Amino acid sequence: MARVCEFCEKRTESGGMVARRGLAKKDGGVGLRCTGRSFRKFKPNVQKVRALVGGKVVRVRLCTKCLKAGRIVKAVRGRVQAAG
Description:
Layout: E1 13-21, E2 33-42, E3 46-53, E4 56-63, H1 64-69, E5 73-74
Antiparallel strand pairs: 1-2, 3-4, 3-5
């Protein structure tokens, strides 16, 4: 699967942006007008990382939030690192 965190299942979400013009009534204007809607995708920052999983070095796709939080142990290239 593309762009999915294997740890927290974070994936691409869809949403939209609404373009408005005018000044709100509470601020003394005549109200906001919607001038356009565009749908977009919110994509997580997913990286391929070599990590220790079950004592073996494997490549996993992780979002940077999980990576920064230290939820996995990164593998050190060239030598075996003890899990713990």
